[in-house]
Records
---
Amino acid sequence: MIWYVATLIASVFSTRGTTAQGAHGVREEPQFVTARAGESVVLGCDVSHPLNGQQTPYVVEWFKFGVPIPFFINFRFYPPHVDPEYAGRTSLHGKASLQIEQVRSEDQGWYECRVLMLEQQYDTFHNGSWVHLTVNAPPTFTETPPQYVEAREGGSITLSCTAFGNPKPVVTWLREGEQLTSNKKYMVSDGSLTVQAIAREDRGAYSCRAHSDQGEAVHTTRLLVQGPPYIVAPPENITVNISQNALFTCQAEAYPGNLTYTWFWEEDNVYFKNDLKLRVRILIDGTLIIFRVKPEDAGKYTCSPSNSLGISPSASAYLTVQYPARVLNMPPVIYVPRKLPGIIRCPVDANPPVTSVRWEKDGYPLRVEKYPGWSQMPDGSIRVAEVTEDSLGTYTCVPYNALGTMGQSPPATLVLKDPPYFNVRPGGEYRQEAGRELVIPCAASGDPEIPTITWRKVGKPSRSKHNILPSGSLQFVSLSKEDHGEWECVATNVVTSITASTRLFVIGTSPHAPANVHVSASTTSANVSWEPGYDGGFEQTFSVWKKKTDLGPHDWLSVPVPGSQTWLVVQGLEPKTAYQFSVLAQNKLGTGPFSEVVTVNTVVYPVSTPEPLVLLTPPRCLTANRTQQGVLLTWLPPANHTSPIDRYIIEFRLGERWEVLDDLIPADETEIMARDLIPDSWYEFRALAVMDDLISESSNVVGVSSTGRTITIESV
Ligand SMILES: *[C@@H]1O[C@H](CO)[C@@H](O)[C@H](O)[C@H]1NC(C)=O
Ligand SMILES: *[C@@H]1O[C@H](CO)[C@@H](O)[C@H](O)[C@H]1NC(C)=O
Ligand SMILES: *[C@@H]1O[C@H](CO)[C@@H](O)[C@H](O)[C@H]1NC(C)=O
Ligand SMILES: *[C@@H]1O[C@H](CO)[C@@H](O)[C@H](O)[C@H]1NC(C)=O
Ligand SMILES: *[C@@H]1O[C@H](CO)[C@@H](O)[C@H](O)[C@H]1NC(C)=O
Ligand SMILES: *[C@@H]1O[C@H](CO)[C@@H](O)[C@H](O)[C@H]1NC(C)=O
Ligand SMILES: *[C@@H]1O[C@H](CO)[C@@H](O)[C@H](O)[C@H]1NC(C)=O
């Protein structure tokens, strides 16, 4: 367009030179006027009167390029006729110039001023003078996103800014002062910004900036990310003394921010916990206050803020309640066994732990040290080495910790009881075949009560069926392999328990699993040893099972163990590899269960230290020069050698065989003179280096003819 107008104007002016003699309101050159929006500007236009000097009346017309009718017409003192676009802000300035106030960006463009001379018979119409008005405008936004925009966590959003101005502003997006460029998170193009995969961290201010040399405009939008709350100040562990108030914070941020906080004690809502609900309050900021804490309030408190979006987070902390030591459930009667050690306990509950317990016996402070065989144990209990009638009485205890005590226990009366005793003890051992019945006798008495009798298997409890007969005897209706082992008969009354043990061999079963499997591994072998289990009544043999740890359960391989040996060296392992081993016993009735599986790593091959490299290269560049005195041999030392050179050897030959010319040439010499050579002969020489016990390969061979004046040298 500009180009078109310029061409047009050029043609206007080029024609004028010939035809516009007497033109009015004419300038030779187009004017270029620049103004800032809002300012006032004058578009110049002169009136040149005809040569006769007469002041003829004239009409001024102003055209905007592209609009065929003038927007401003002025004739003499009549009010000008103005297009509504320009009304109120245009006026004639001087003879024909136009003043425009409050210039607008839209006013930019080419203007033409035409002056029509009236009362003139000729040349009443001329193209006038051309003015180009440039209106500079600082950037202003025509479209911006709202001040606040919302987006869901995980979603995306596009913000658009369009700016207007002259020259055309460039629009960029900024976040925290940094200009944004397109990447995984943002797509920036043409004044619009797309934020993708929106996360909580994307919340906050985004600014679009429109910039030109006329200035800049900035618009800021805050992105609010809708999502579940985020706990900014989680609760912290606290310790309070009894009756104080406890306070847990739980500050969360969220959008939307209509948060409700729920607090749990252990797994229960604090408002649903009977003892607690009347003493708790949850403040609007999520803080939980527990008034006048009790020891029972101790435990885990969990807060969970929610705005009904997504999964509500939670955070926990522990409340520790300190309270003076107190006695819980002191029994009114304490039974102690006559003539046996007895313990008088003070059942204490304290936090921090109890530091001391004071006792009273029959209302008087009890001095333990005054009674031989009495002592106070670390937990405050009194131990009596042998309970007699002297020990009888009423006991009370008062426990203390750092916070003091909650007071004395109720009184407990000591009552002597005889311990139970066995009337029938089980025998030392029993052997019975599997599947058969067996009764192991045990009976106990006591005075006055009959003690209760129980049986238990030592070690792994037996899942097989067994009964305790009314007499106290242990009955197996049908013995099973599992019953094999050590059993204890326990007789219990209020004061104590006594036990009697016996061994039961269940014969006629497959062997029991070997125990204590031990493996010591080397690089490629491992010595597996074990303790045999019970053989089930028949001779047992073993096999060792192995596999690489990373292989599956089908890859176990077995190696038989010769004779009754209880160890085996497993060969053919790979170094630095994890292996698993288990041992299986077998007798004529079958195999027992596998032993425990032991995992070991074979060791790494010992790293062999390489032999130090011995290197000796031959002497180099041997040359021979015949001189007056003889043949001068020179050479260079070997290029590479690991130790210093000891000496050099020079050898010569006349025919086939090499002979030593000199074998004691010091290492710091690299030439010798070969004298007294046989005339008219073809000599060849070579050099060797000696280092430690090593003789190098030979150097190059040089040949010298001792014939005539001309010396012939050849390298062979
Ligand atoms: C005046 O300008 C118009 C275009 O606006 C052009 O067509 C015409 O030839 C011009 N006349 C003279 C006399 O220059
Ligand atoms: C809070 O107390 C619990 C339980 O006593 C403990 O496991 C946790 O490490 C404590 N936390 C802090 C931050 O001390
Ligand atoms: C609790 O009581 C003890 C002993 O009186 C005192 O040393 C401690 O400061 C108290 N703790 C608090 C949190 O008040
Ligand atoms: C929070 O406000 C949203 C939208 O107004 C509503 O759907 C939600 O139920 C409110 N959540 C809570 C916990 O009041
Ligand atoms: C394997 O270990 C057993 C038990 O430690 C030991 O008695 C036995 O001699 C060892 N065998 C070899 C070959 O080292
Ligand atoms: C050998 O003799 C030639 C000529 O006489 C001389 O240029 C050269 O340097 C000599 N070389 C040595 C190693 O002396
Ligand atoms: C000497 O040693 C260097 C570096 O190890 C090697 O590049 C060169 O070839 C050796 N020279 C000879 C003559 O062996």
---
Amino acid sequence: MLIKKKSGLEIPSSEITPEHLYRSRRQFMKGAAALGLLAGLAACRPGGNAPRGRAPVADLEAIEPGSVGAASDELGDELTNFWEIITYNNFYEFTTDKTGVAGMSAALQTSPWEIEVGGLVNNPGVYDVDDLLRLFDEEERIYRLRCVEAWSMVIPWLGFPLSKLLERVEPTSAARYVRFETLYDAAQMPGQRRGTYEWPYVEGLRLDEAMHDLTILSTGLYGRSLLPQNGAPIRLVVPWKYGFKSIKSIVKIELVAEQPTSLWMAAAPHEYGFYANVNPSVSHPRWSQRSERRIGELGRRDTLMFNGYEEQVAHLYADMDLRENF
Ligand SMILES: Nc1nc2c(c(=O)[nH]1)N[C@H]1C(S)=C(S)[C@@H](COP(=O)(O)O)O[C@H]1N2
Ligand SMILES: [Mo]
């Protein structure tokens, strides 16, 4: 992976955004318009009982990606274009329609935003996201994101290692897992009014997974702050696991002794396990995980063990049967 410290050199994004990003964005807009993909966004009305929030396409169009340190990941895979990252999303608190999330989540109130960090720790605390950004330097991390549904992207995140926050709160010797919770606010998140899932969204990591340097709390992407559809103002990113582990819009982090039950484990225990490591040789009960569709590419590519991060993380699972611990 590419780990780059932020330079501190702030150049207006318009001056340094590589030309291919502008080009790919225009292509995307044309393609999306042709497919009617953005129709829902363009048609949305503010407030009331309108099914979509505010985010007329004109507003989204005004967003330019900021500065990015490289055009590809460490494997040479090109970054997915900004537009696809902010208009093709899974965020079931709003809708299960991937292209509808951006519009429906646009009004989410993301500031101020507090995260409670507690449980089995010596120094529990409540942190505002702005406090976290003062405490920890943001770094750019270019990671592949592999959804369990077999599509993938390459995303230039901004964030800081989760380990820095955990070290600060000092887990006690009884802490073995970390449990994360998304905001529960059905007034703002219409998907939570449906009883299909057990809200709030919950995820978990083993403590050593949480402490791994690849595991970050992300506050931005493409050099700018996260938009609601990507989990603003702060979300987890664990690049060697299926995308659903990377829980969005976090309000609570708790150190616990027992393995947490995630929303997906509760919903379909035979389909989604606790570990959810990307593994091409273990199929989902309803589809193969051998290959994936990289958003923006034609055709499919092979899925890599641990999403290409095997060298960095395989040791965490050395004594485990990865078929049983799926
Ligand atoms: N709270 C919450 N977090 C979530 C989800 C969700 O529905 N709710 N979807 C997950 C899934 S399935 C994926 S693939 C990623 C997608 O992240 P992105 O939309 O930023 O690409 O977010 C994950 N985090
Ligand atoms: Mo996903």
